[in-house]
Amino acid sequence: MRLNNLGLIHTNIERPDPEDVARLSKFGVATIHEAMGRVGLLRPYIRPVYNGAKLCGPAVTVLLQPGDNWMFHAAAEQVQEGDVIVAGCTTESEDGFFGELLATSLSARGCKGLVIDGGVRDVADLEKMDFPVFSRAINAKGTVKATLGSVNVPVVVANALVNPGDVVVADVDGVVVVPRELVGAVAEASQKREDNEESKRQKFREGVLGLDLYGMREPLAAAGLEYVEN
């Protein structure tokens, strides 16, 4: 009887339609988060390790043990073109799990980046490679290869549940997870939100105030707001 999900690699995972992923990739994290009803965000301590990093792709998930990056090497075999690696840990750890050598290996498999609730190193090299990484910390401390984790199991990363095949989108505003079965619908909702914001943007350019555009004057007055001329 298995007591946990450690020591497992699931080799067949469902991925969303690549066209839906491509449509979703046009939108920023904030737009997608709002379009989904303000759900799916990772905690804001997950940050890009270099300016301009961004990614979008189906998740190959990795469950790490603290101070051990063995499972990254196992995960590389499961990566398909366009995937991103999303890594959580069985407990908090900021060791440098990932660096330039692993990025080189993953890039050769078509991996488009990494999101990790842990530490990474070789940041200058990652930037030169243009391999996007979003992490909890930058830490030169190395790791060992001694303890089993898992690949392609559900993982909790910075308080967000990520299932294999979910789409992860990351940019300077943060990281958001879109459930695999909702990618097409979220792309459509994001486009509608973008179109609506463009019409508001134009009105703001013309000098219309938010007080009037959003009909705020009456509720503000009802709440007791007063204008006082000195």
TrEMBL record:
<comment type="subunit">
    <text>Homotrimer.</text>
</comment>
<comment type="similarity">
    <text>Belongs to the class II aldolase/RraA-like family.</text>
</comment>
<dbReference type="InterPro" id="IPR005493">
    <property type="entry name" value="RraA/RraA-like"/>
</dbReference>
<protein>
    <recommendedName>
        <fullName>Putative 4-hydroxy-4-methyl-2-oxoglutarate aldolase</fullName>
        <ecNumber>4.1.1.112</ecNumber>
        <ecNumber>4.1.3.17</ecNumber>
    </recommendedName>
</protein>
<dbReference type="InterPro" id="IPR014165">
    <property type="entry name" value="LigK_PcmE"/>
</dbReference>
<dbReference type="Pfam" id="PF03737">
    <property type="entry name" value="RraA-like"/>
</dbReference>
<dbReference type="InterPro" id="IPR036704">
    <property type="entry name" value="RraA/RraA-like_sf"/>
</dbReference>
<comment type="function">
    <text>Catalyzes the aldol cleavage of 4-hydroxy-4-methyl-2-oxoglutarate (HMG) into 2 molecules of pyruvate. Also contains a secondary oxaloacetate (OAA) decarboxylase activity due to the common pyruvate enolate transition state formed following C-C bond cleavage in the retro-aldol and decarboxylation reactions.</text>
</comment>
